[in-house]
Amino acid sequence: MSQNEGRGTPEQSGQPEPAAPTPIPPAGPPADPPATAPPAGPYPGPGPYPNPGPYPAAHHGAHQWGGGWLPPLPPRPGVIPLRPLGLGDVFGGAFSTMGRYWKQLIGFFLAVQFATLLVVVALAAIGMAITWSHLDPVFDPGYGQDPPREDLVPVLATFIPLGVIAVGVALVGFSLTSAAMPVLVQEGVLGRPVTFGTLFRRAWARTASVLGVTVLTGLLAAIPLAAFFLIGIPLSEAAEADGAGTDGSANFVTLLPLLLLLVFFPFAVWIWIRYGLATAAAVCEEVGPVTAMRRSAKLVRGSWWRIFGISLLIGLAALVMAYIIQIVFTLIGVMVMFPALALTGPDADVTAGVVILFTLYALFSVIGSALGQLIFPTLSQLASALLYVDQRIRREDLISGLLAANTPGPRP
């Protein structure tokens, strides 16, 4: 009998085989799903906490110099390792996602911004066309005179509804862009490619839910502001009308903005963190705005300060990067414009070269501003989506679901 035959199979020798990870419904459709596979859908919802078992290569760990074995490295199919994330993992994952999908990001951002700007300009043109004959008396009534009522009312009646529509269009554009970030993270974690068409379809399908999250969160954060207008202003007017003392009422009116800041700002930050993962939940789990906000509150509970610290650091870093990019492009535009400044003067003629140089300056300024506006919200929203994944890994064993989603199905 040979040496290998003497050892026998693992069952015969009493050595148990390593357990396979417990499958969870995948985040998206596999390449060749088996006949009994569950229907494809979003990230799996919360459930029990099964033991995923050791990683497939756990019994082949690397040998240390001092003896013993190193634990196996966690799998990394995409932009992050499949384990609980730290600050460096979230920061690096956000940048890796931007680097992996930079074409889709820039194209999507420019398309949404251009469409939003086009609609707003069209609304402004419609309003001006309707009230053209009333604009001059309203905006140039004469020194010391009020605009005539017969001209002011049509202008307000036209531009107020159009302004509300423009704000709604801007919110839809913001929500569409926000919905795209969790889609990129969802695919980036698994290392899968995303086309522009797929990104737009999936983001547009969840825009209504993300819009609901944005509006509800804003309304909750505005509660102290509404209380100021409903309570603070009447109290200040009553204090001014009271004859007990003008100095006391003046001090009260002066302190009102400070009191508003002390109450409004901490409450708004608390709301921002508590429901900061709702956008990712609305997109990845395909739920409504209220359910997404409840999921965010549940995932954040007990980790508020950690999520606040990571979000604050990444937000500050993104803000500094956006500012530096704008400054660099503005300086390039100024250096390009220097020859035009030397050629211009009181009696100098405007030449084609001067026009081109000034146009280049404006172009560099616009590019810098656009890149700055892209960097800041993109990094912040990608970080929020990664924090959502991190909290699900820590609390709901999302690793098993991600591994199952990244495993191709059996061939027919």
Give a description of the structure.
This protein is globular. It has a domain of 96 residues. 25% of the residues are buried. The chain is mostly helical. The N terminus is likely disordered. It has 15 helices and no strands.
Low-confidence residue ranges: 1-40, 48-67
Secondary-structure-derived class: mainly alpha
Residue fraction in strands: under 5%
Work out the radius of gyration: 29 Å
Please give the number of β-strands.
0
Can you give the helix content as a percent range? 55-70%
Amino- and carboxy-terminal Cα gap: 40 Å
> Could you describe the largest sheet, including whether it forms a barrel?
none
In DSSP terms (H or I, runs of 4 or more residues), the helix count works out at: 15
The outline comes out as: globular
Estimate the mean pLDDT confidence: 79
Give the ordered list of helices and strands. Answer: HHHHHHHHHHHHHHH
Protein name: Glycerophosphoryl diester phosphodiesterase membrane domain-containing protein
Organism: Streptomyces venezuelae
Keywords: Membrane, Transmembrane, Transmembrane helix
